[in-house]
Specification:
This protein is of the alpha+beta class. Helix content is 54%, strand content 19%.
C-alpha cells in the first residue's frame, strides 16, 4: 500500500511540475493559431489589392498558413519536452525524396506560380509560345490551356512555358496585319502607294492610330513588292486581312494599275 501511495505522490508531483509547461504550451498554441489566422487574412487582402490571380491567392495563402502552423506545432512540441530533431530529420528526408520524384511536376508548379504572379498574359489573350499559336483559355498551377485557330485544345506544361519565349499578340490592344502586294516594275510607284494607302484606310476596322504603313521591300523578277501594314483590333484581324487584300485589288483595277504577269521560262532542247 505504501508503494502505491509513493507512486501516486510521485505522479501528482510530476503533474504539478508539468502543469505550468502544459498551460504555457496551450496558451502559445491558441495565441499562435489566432495570430496565424490574422496574418493569413492580411496576406490574402494584400494579394487582392495587388490583383493577383485568385488561383495564386488561394494557393499561396494556404501554403503560408500550412507552413506557419507546422512551425507552431513543432515549437509547442519542443516546449512540452518532445524531441523534435529526429522528427525534423524525417520531414527533411521525406521532402527531399518527394522533390526528386516530382522534379518535373515541381518545375511546372514553379512555372505556374511565376506566370500567375508576373502575368505575361491572361485568359483571353492570343499568344505564341512553345510552337503553339492560340488564345489562352485557362491558366492553372501546372498547365496552361490554349485554343488554336483550328479549334484544337493544346495543354502546355508551365515549366517550359515560363522559361521560354512568349509572344503576347494582344497585349497592346491592337495588331499589325502584314501583307504584300506586287506590281509590275514599270508601274507608277507613287500612284500605287497612294491607291493602296487609301484602300487600306477605306477598309472597315482598320485603325487610324497607329496609321497604316507601306514601303517597297523587294525589286526583283520584274516586280515591285510593297509591304503593307494596316493595324486593327485583335478580334478583327482576319476581317481586315481579307478585306484589305480585296479592297487593294479593286482599287488597283479602278486606277488602271496593272497586275504583274507571271514570268514564263521557255526550255529549248538541243536537237
Amino acid at each position: 500500500m505504501e508503494q502505491y501511495q509513493k507512486k501516486l505522490d510521485e505522479l501528482v508531483s510530476n503533474i504539478i511540475l508539468f502543469a505550468p509547461r502544459l498551460i504555457t504550451a496551450l496558451v502559445v498554441l491558441v495565441v499562435g493559431l489566432w495570430v496565424i489566422g490574422r496574418l493569413t487574412k492580411w496576406i490574402r487582402r494584400g494579394m487582392s489589392v495587388k490583383e493577383y490571380d485568385p488561383t495564386i491567392q488561394r494557393f499561396l495563402s494556404g501554403l503560408i498558413d500550412m507552413l506557419m502552423k507546422a512551425m507552431l506545432i513543432i515549437s509547442v512540441a519542443s516546449m512540452l519536452g518532445i524531441e523534435t530533431t529526429s522528427f525534423l530529420a524525417i520531414l527533411t528526408s521525406a521532402g527531399l525524396a518527394i522533390g526528386l520524384a516530382l522534379q518535373g511536376g515541381l518545375s511546372n508548379f514553379a512555372g505556374g506560380v511565376l506566370l500567375l504572379i508576373f502575368k505575361p498574359f491572361k485568359v483571353g489573350d492570343k499568344i505564341e509560345a512553345q510552337g503553339i499559336n492560340g488564345r489562352v483559355q485557362e491558366i492553372s498551377i501546372f498547365t496552361t490551356t490554349v485554343i488554336t485557330a483550328t479549334n484544337k485544345t493544346v495543354i502546355i506544361p508551365n515549366g517550359p512555358l515560363a522559361n521560354g519565349i512568349i509572344t503576347n499578340e494582344t497585349a497592346k490592344g491592337s495588331m499589325r496585319v502584314d501583307l504584300r502586294v506586287n506590281i509590275p516594275r514599270d508601274a507608277d510607284i507613287d500612284l500605287a502607294k497612294k491607291v493602296i494607302l487609301q484602300a487600306m484606310r477605306d477598309t472597315p476596322n482598320v485603325l487610324s492610330d497607329p496609321a497604316p504603313g507601306i514601303g517597297v521591300s523587294v525589286l526583283a523578277d520584274g516586280l515591285t513588292t510593297f509591304d503593307i501594314m494596316p493595324y486593327t483590333e485583335e478580334q478583327n484581324y482576319w476581317e481586315v486581312y481579307y478585306g484589305v487584300l480585296e479592297n487593294v485589288r479593286k482599287a488597283m483595277i479602278a486606277n488602271n494599275i496593272p497586275s504583274p504577269v507571271p514570268v514564263q521560262i521557255e526550255i529549248h532542247k538541243e536537237a
